[in-house]
């Protein structure tokens, strides 16, 4: 089962990044997004990313242009036909299953379907689909063009052929795949919960989040937890915390932070809105 074409559904930060990764590896990509404003923002963002690589000498002009030409930007779901279809939309199960149902109707009997979900159960998503043996998790990390790790999440019914195809695809696009089973938070987001939750609790106790970031970065972390949450998006990070908390049986140690909930409810989601824990509009 070879993957020679890719469709990415959802042109937000993750979706556009995944599209760029596939196109950089020489694979033609359809980047589908129903919201025209988001789609144009993705187009501009990919152009900016490629321009940055060009200026740093990591790409030449011809390569940059070729990568961009491999991406077809579309607002028509009928264009979502490929060997591999990757979903990267909002972290709501009903939205994802509805999309996959539409995608299954438009694709053939060999198409692989994958979700970039950060923490939702692959088995739960698969249960609503007629193609559970061709469905798996394919969890890239932000920013997708830079981060090497990809979690390949095997569901209860995912076939060996599909798992092997996804592992091969992940390596082909220059990433490092880690095969994991369907479990709350998979591997990385399960392990990372204390990094975020304990930092948020310390901030709730009055320790400035700038101080927490500075100290952890001084200890060798590439990015402090509050800077990282702003980069990921507080809405996304909070949703993952809520999902893992619920799936683990609501243990107190994993209780989502009220401070982060306030950020989400106020619309201060981080870099993508211009303000989160830090103000990016200055």
Query: Pairing-aware structural class of the strands and helices?
Result: alpha/beta
Average pLDDT figure: 96
CATH architecture of the largest domain: 3-Layer(aba) Sandwich
Strand ordering within the main sheet: 3-2-1-4-5-6-7-8
CATH class of the largest domain: Alpha Beta
The number of distinct β-strands equals 8
The Rg value, from CA coordinates, equals: 19 Å
Please provide a brief summary of the model.
The chain is of the alpha/beta class.
Task: Note down, in words, how this protein is organized.
- By secondary structure, the chain is α/β, with parallel strands linked by helices.
- 46% of the residues lie in helices and 13% in strands.
- The protein contains 11 helices and 8 strands.
- The protein has an 8-stranded mixed β-sheet with strand order 3-2-1-4-5-6-7-8, with helices on both faces.
- The longest helix has 20 residues, at 36-55.
- The model has no long low-confidence stretch (mean pLDDT 96).
């Amino acid at each position: 089962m070879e993957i020679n074409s890719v469709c990415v559904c959802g042109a937000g930060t993750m979706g556009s990044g995944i599209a760029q990764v596939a196109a950089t590896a020489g694979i033609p990509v359809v980047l589908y997004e129903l919201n025209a404003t988001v789609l144009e923002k993705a187009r501009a963002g990919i152009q900016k990313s490629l321009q940055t690589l060009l200026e740093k000498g990591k790409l030449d002009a011809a390569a940059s242009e070729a990568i961009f030409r491999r991406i077809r930007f579309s607002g028509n779901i009928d264009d979502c036909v490929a060997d591999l279809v990757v979903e990267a939309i909002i972290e709501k199960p009903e939205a994802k299953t509805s999309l996959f149902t539409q995608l299954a109707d438009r694709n053939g009997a060999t198409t692989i379907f994958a979700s970039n979900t950060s923490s939702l159960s692959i088995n739960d998503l698969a249960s609503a689909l007629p193609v559970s043996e061709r469905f798996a998790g394919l969890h890239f990390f932000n920013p997708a063009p830079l981060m090497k790790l990809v979690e390949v999440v095997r569901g209860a019914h995912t076939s060996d052929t599909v798992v092997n195809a996804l592992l091969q695809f992940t390596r082909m696009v220059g990433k490092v795949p880690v095969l994991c089973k369907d479990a709350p938070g998979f591997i990385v987001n399960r392990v990372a919960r204390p990094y975020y939750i304990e930092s948020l609790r310390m901030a709730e106790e009055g320790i400035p989040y700038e101080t927490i970031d500075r100290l952890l970065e001084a200890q060798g972390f590439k990015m402090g937890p509050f800077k990282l949450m702003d980069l990921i998006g507080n809405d996304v990070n909070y949703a993952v915390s809520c999902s893992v908390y619920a799936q683990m049986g609501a243990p107190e140690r994993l209780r989502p932070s009220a401070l982060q909930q306030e950020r989400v409810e106020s619309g201060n989601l981080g870099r993508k809105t211009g303000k989160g824990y830090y103000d990016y509009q200055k």
